[in-house]
Batch of 2 targets.
Target 1
Amino acid sequence: MSELGPGDVRRIDTPPIAVFNVEGALFAISDICTHAEASLSEGHVDGQTVECPLHGACFDLRTGEALTPPATEPVQVFAVVLQDEDVYVEVESD
Ligand code: FES
């Protein structure tokens, strides 16, 4: 994927991953909230956290940790590689 500027969020559909550009730092986490089925790419980003749009749980974009209820389980995080202008997310295949 390319053209992911500061403040931008992009969703990858398969597997569902949300990629965030926070002031030039790239983070990739599972796009599915661990509390229910909300899409975290539609959430509000505040610093290096994202707030679930459905019930407001906050997740750390760096670690995936659930910081506030109602979510208690972390979301999976993925490594992001920047090559030239393109952004790649490393997903392990089964
Ligand atoms: S679905 Fe995300 S906090 Fe409930």
Target 2
Amino acid sequence: MNPHRTEPIISFAGVSFTYAGSETPALRDVDLEIAEGEYVALLGRGGAGKTTLGLCINGVVPHMLGGDLTGEVRVAGLEVADYAVREMSKIVGIVFDNPEFQMSQLTAAEEVALGLENTGTPHDEMMRAIPEELRLVGLEGMEDRPPLGLSGGQQQRLAIAAVLAMKPRVLVLDEPTSNLDPVGKEDVFDIAGRLNRDQGMTVVIAEHEVEVMAEYADRIVVLDQGRVVLNGSPHEILPQVELLDGLDLRPPQVTRAAQVLRDEHHLWNGSLPVLTEEAVGGIERVLGGST
Ligand SMILES: Nc1ncnc2c1ncn2[C@@H]1O[C@H](COP(=O)(O)OP(=O)(O)OP(=O)(O)O)[C@@H](O)[C@H]1O
Ligand SMILES: [Mg+2]
């Protein structure tokens, strides 16, 4: 939230990466700085490099998924190439789109305990921490439930609790809601938003729900063919409707509606809205501004 700070918590400097055995780079000359406490949305069509960028933050690229990495990725002052994923996972928690693949334990409590064990938390402290972590994600009292018996949304919240148990400073979410129903989606967005707002946790999220990103994100970074092609606030990026079209991305529905009113009916003055409340204000002006 406070961009005037010293060193960014995440920095990519001239980063290119090509997966072993692949011809085309997945990331090309990426320069990107993210301040601690920022909420950054990654957008881009399939194959643009969003997942690869996220995996560079926790070191899975290049340590577990190998290839040719040039440039420098630094997270919390550490050059990721020099630290094992196990070390990085104390700083960076990562949650993927498919919650059931992230579940390895017999009960929800054990799932969270796994994260706590990795940080060397003593047993009695762990017994206190588990209910607290579950409560944070709205799974209070579910300690003994088998993860695979939970709903998709509950599983995803459990996956978040398991990484939160490690007390990461950065949470990377890779399309965390793509397999969830609308209520499950909203819960996950709500948790990430709260962690960012209340605990100053840095959030980096690849997500297609552009209306939600307009609301939560401080910054939107658009990738295309491995390059950062747009980088700015939602209000800077999302009204650029034609540019987004060319990248196979869509603007928020209210932005699109206002653009049609502006370009086809000359009924919209001023900047295009990205949030619903801004659209309502604009529509009231169009209708003669009774309020
Ligand atoms: N494990 C891998 N081995 C080889 N190539 C890979 C691997 N993972 C991704 N790629 C390639 O790297 C490029 C970037 O893929 P990446 O998965 O990072 O994109 P993405 O933006 O996350 O896409 P999506 O929206 O489909 O999740 C693509 O060309 C992809 O085919
Ligand atoms: Mg991906």
